[in-house]
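Input sequence (140 aa), recorded before submission:
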Amino acid sequence: MPTILLAENDLEQAKLYSLSLQKTGFQVIHVTNASELEKIINKQKIDIILSDTELDESNGDEICKKLLEEEKLNDVLIIGMSNALDYGDYWISIAHEFLYKRAISEFYDLGCFVRALYERFKINHKIIRYKENLLRNRFQ
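Predicted structure, token format:
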């Protein structure tokens, strides 16, 4: 069962998101701030981070960028989300995907959508690893 680290400081939204994700077969760990997010990443294996831009204490994109630079999120699908269409301002070059929060409940089921993104991420990740191995073997 894939594990999602849901970083959302709006408790009502977090409850709705968690239910949808759990129905689709994900284990959900919920945090409300950047320091909790970092603690969880350092303690256990996470498959997906689904993070709001604005968290308590710090922005979700900032902590994800820091953890990426520390190479702690190499195999983690990062999905940024916000109430504003601010992907370019915050999540560019950090998140693999971005969700506009106002569209989540109106247009699609979050759990199904994240499942599809995760399956695509795993396939792409396998292809990248395969190509890296080919190159490594070629030059040895």
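Checked by second reader. The helical segments are 11-23, 34-43, 60-69, 87-90, 101-107, 110-138.
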